[in-house]
Amino acid sequence: MAPATKPGSGKNTPQRSIKSFFTSSSPAGEEKKKKEPLVIGALETPKKGAIDVGSIASTPGKRKVESSPKPPSAKKKQKLVIGVDVVPEDVVVPEDVVVPEDVVVPEDEVVPVKRRRLRKVKEESDDKGGEGGIGRRLKVYWPLDKAWYAGKVTGYNASDGTHVVVYDDGEEQDVDVASEKVEWLEEDYEEELEKRPGKRGRVEAESPAAKVTVVEEETGGRKRRARRQIQCVVESDDDDDDDDTEDEDFKAEKDASEEQESEVDDAVEEEEDEDDDEVDEPEVASDSDGKASRRKPKKATLSAVKKPSGRGSKKVSKVVSKGSSLGKITISSGRLEIGKGVSNDIASGEQSALAGDAAERFGGRDAEKFKFLGRDRKDAAGRKPTDPAYNPCTLHLPADFVKGLSGGQRQWWMFKAKHMDKVLLFKMGKFYEMFEMDAHIGAKELDLQYMKGEQPHCGFPEKNFSDNAQKLALKGYRVLVVEQTETPDQLEKRRKETGSKDKVVMREVCAVITRGTMIDGDMNHMSGERMVMLSLVEQISETDSSLIGLCVVDASTGCFQLCQFEDDAARVRLSAVLTELRPVELIIPRGTLSSATSRVLRDCTRHPLVNELSPSDMWDPEQIFKEVSNVYSGLESSQENGVAEAELLPPVLRHVKGLGAKGKMAFTAFGACAQYLRQVLLDRTLLAVRRIELLPGFNDILDDPECKALAEQAKVAVDAGLHRNEPHMVLDGAALENLEVLENNDGGTNGTLLATLDHCVTPFGRRLLREWLARPLLLKESIKQRQMAVTDLKGVALDAVSRFKKEMARVPDLERALARLHASSGANGRNAAKVVMYEDVGKKQVLQFTAALRGCRSMLQAASHFDPYLLKLTSSRLKDLLTFGKGMPDMKSVIEHFETAFDWPEAENSGRILPREGVDSDFDAASAVISEVEGKLDAYLKEQRAHFGEHREIVYLTVGKESYQMEVPERFLAKIPKDFEVRSSRKGFRRYWSPEIKSLLQELAAGVEQRESALKDILMHLVRDFCKHNSTWLSAVKTIAEVDALISISAASLYTEGPSCTPTFSGGEQQAPWFYAKDLRHPTAGAALTGGSSFVPNNVNLGGEQHAPFMLLTGPNMGGKSTLLRQVCLAVILAQVGADVPAEELRLAPVDQVFVRMGARDNIMAGQSTFLVELQETATMLRSATKNSLVALDELGRGTATSDGQAIAHAVLWELTHAIGCRGIFSTHYHRLATEHAADSTVALYHMGCKVASNKGGLEEVTFLYKLCPGACPKSYGVNVARLAGMPESILQRASARSAELELTFEERNCETVKTLEDQVACKLLKELGHSLEKAERDSSKLDALERLKPLWAEAKELVAASA
């Protein structure tokens, strides 16, 4: 196929050379520079050559080559990589390499292809030149296609000496037959061409590798034509490229002739909406000497041609995976069979079977070549899967298999055999490669394309690392990053110096990335949501209660949180933690957790990745102390500051360790977490932050008197700022889930209380608001202070609020940015200096540093906006927060220091930091040397001008790389000293170096080298200085987070539909708890949830001196009973968070716990029915509730027979009202409960109002009023719901008749039980006396009252018996 027509022209231009697309900016005589890879830690980016902008059309993710005039021929040939952003100065491309106009080349593609020299057919060109060739047929050779194209000469352009060639496919082009490779055709050749099958006009090249098949396929309902993609690298005389795509061949079978041939890949044209960052890449082979070569493609089948191949390209259609191609081996998880993650399937070989083209290409090969992955599989220690100690994460490689591997393959398998549970990203030059079973995962999960060849292989460029690693981690894979720590040049040097016979560069494991270990800033895109790991250890008691130790780690912020508590048989406290945090990874000891704990881990998490540690390998407390102390003692900060051994550990950790058995479980959980972090190479990085706190809400360790005494003995002081020790309301897991406080049933936030209140502008403010909702305040004074702060932010400080939000809206997630900076200052993992990187990592680090600096300055400015309003604030808490030196640290001087240290905008633009004077002593010393030498050179120039007669023509010039050449007019030749050395000249002038200049230049070079050396380390020095103030920055972040959360709460009232109020709290120990709401509405149910109509408000009265503390709620199905329960509970939570409540008025006594039992859930896997789960939650409620608690029970007892369910409901209600005496609402369809409690002063009967009418068929039609009304509802109108559900009319009629019969029977029985009003009164008196007796018996102070009540009780019994 001929090249496409040039845009804007009527006919095609001549076939062009690659040189026409690029220009070289280096002077003719300038020495060529060597292109070096970019190494982490080096701040200076190698200079790049110029590129002719006019020759490249900018398109997203691609570069399209346009025509431009040919530059002059070059003398020296260098390797040219098509697709890079710039071309090195020294790159010159031979004229005889051509590229068609329609070539589209991916930006990051590196395709080594051998250059072929074109032969010039001068004799034939001379004979058929000019107009003599018109009408003749010829074929033109396209070297990048390695194919000939036939056509006919139809005209001649005398102006430029080109012939107009019309190819046989109808396309036209101007061709210079004198310079291009052409062959004139005879008539017999034309006849032979006509008989050839395939596309007319295409003449195949001699090489079999040049064969290209053009096909069409149906994709997405439309045809797509396969497009030839030209990929080339011009041959270089100097192999200076450090790209390690030059590694030893990964393909065992290799033909020597293949190394001499180039390859033309057929790629299906990409979809219009394809990701621009994805590029098509070829498979790369390499010689043992490190030179890259292209593999000759095998004969392509139709299916193979349809699929594009290349590194990073996207698939046309996804492969559907089924079953398993390997033996199914399941990782042991003890008693915990939950969300182990797909990485465990990788370790066991339980991967999806290949399908389609992949199965055809690789299925037989895998089964034949990797028999040791099937039934004969063993771990690294030689144990089989049937062995209890078998480790599926390792693999034994047979000796004969290893012996047959090439050096590169052996290196990959050595890494893989130690990490079978992980997906390897294997760095080769500028690409991360995926081989064998990992390649199938890359194709399936990342939509990468397999490379050509028998071996499964795909990959992606370095710039796509963060995106692809994050995708794999979020899908549950463990990703092992193997980085290149040596360049080919360094390999060659090592071989010469040590005599090593290594043929591949050195590589090391530099990172393990999972859902809980994503610390890279480019991977944390989750809008501020925490993705935490949780380690758990447990000690079981004889009563099935459990002593639990937890350690929660947020790797993105470097924060560790510890706690230890005793939990009941239902693991209520553990479920609350799990429901709030939703950990994405669990670290647990294998096989030691109780069934109850395992059940809660399963039910209260969302498929976390489970990491099991062998109990025999886990560190004991002494070893934990030793290992962690070694980490801290090895930190540079500890060495510089001379920290004593006893103070190496952070305060909270020292405190917990000093408590002995009282803190043992928490300390052990921390040790398990540290042990796992060491396995994923993050222990030093995260522990260095020294941010270890107690988990908010679990301060048993601090409150226990014995613990306090032990802490005083150990002389351990705990910084109060490291934890929040304020009393709070308890919300267990059931309450958080049923009320949808943090998450809805789908795991999102739509319709939740968090979404209603969340108007934060910072991610760290949003995380704090989430904590507040999970643990509302309890003390009235604390609630009052927060309410006053919210009022101030809506009133006197409203103007400052708008400026605060505008300032902080631009700030990144500083809490995470500070942790990343701290991590990078240690130069660990992928940040290590030895890791070879080709992207501009230095500039990326500079941008991260300046972003953190700007964020800290923004925090300072945001807090300063409140200065004019401090005296007007009524909240002392808010005033303290915004006062510098109190809640807000005084960090102005520190920020000013970094502002004067270097020019921030200049550093962001250049990617390197030039420190100002006084910042870095080494840089200042080097700069002083340079200034001194330059001064001497200026003085020497003045001396020479005086020597030659004060002529201003004598100056210094820089020629090429030689500076300070002293230019002297030739008329002064007689005065030139003999020791002056001529370096260059021009007409009328000569340029010299004198011995003095040479000596000074040596001093100057030494100074420049010293300064460059200082510049390489200046960024790390500044970052370390910045991290020394980490406690200051974190304190400021916490303050700004609290202010942001308070502003968010204040803003929520502005978005509330209808009136809202600030709740009033009262009551004390001697007063009965109470709750009063006037016109209360649901906080989260807006117009969208009520079909566009307004929400019906209700008045609610619970407790106090004049109202019953408990409400028995009846009403029709779908009448709004559950909604009323939820809105009362949510109103209490809102009130104690400090927010306004959607009501005309709300008065209450603080609630210590909220219990909610609603909905139907079962646990079939544990053999637990819906009814059992319901009663377990109710039992927890009865054990934990106090008189200050709030209980919401929705239809308790419906999971069993009516008589049993009603009996249980009656007993529970009696316990809550008479034994516990708490506030609550009990909704039910057991109408007999209402009858039984009609005379109970502790229970108030209410129902949800409705209107009932009959339709034409005599069926009841119910209109829901959603209004809370006094008294009991006579029935539930379930037949009405059946009608709404669309049941047949006959069924409805029969159900209605049967319902009437059952109701009549119930009424008759009720009449027999209670005959007269007097009987009811007598029963009521009897009950009241009985209750009073029970209370008096429990209170020893009321013995006198007990004596008076006993005769009354006997008399009441006689009266009731007589009436019966």
TrEMBL record:
Gene Ontology annotations for the cellular component aspect, listed alphabetically: nucleus
Ranges for domain DNA mismatch repair proteins mutS family: 1108-1300
Biased composition (Basic and acidic residues): 193-205
Superkingdom, natural source: Eukaryota
GO biological process: one example: mismatch repair
Annotated stretches, region: Disordered: 1-79, 188-319
Amino acid composition bias (Acidic residues), ranges on this chain: 235-250, 258-286
Domain DNA mismatch repair protein MutS core per the UniProt entry, residue ranges: 748-1088
Keyword annotations of the record: ATP-binding, DNA damage, DNA repair, DNA-binding, Nucleotide-binding
Entries under Pfam families matching the protein: MutS_I (PF01624), MutS_II (PF05188), MutS_III (PF05192), MutS_IV (PF05190), MutS_V (PF00488)
Biased segments, Basic residues type: 308-317
Tagged with keyword Electron transport: no
GO molecular function, one term: ATP binding
Compositional bias of kind Polar residues: 10-27
PANTHER family the record matches: DNA MISMATCH REPAIR PROTEIN MSH6 (PTHR11361:SF150), DNA MISMATCH REPAIR PROTEIN MUTS FAMILY MEMBER (PTHR11361)
Function: Component of the post-replicative DNA mismatch repair system (MMR).
Recorded family membership: Belongs to the DNA mismatch repair MutS family.
Protein name: DNA mismatch repair protein
Species this protein is from: Ceratodon purpureus (Fire moss)
Taxonomic lineage of the native organism: Eukaryota, Viridiplantae, Streptophyta, Embryophyta, Bryophyta
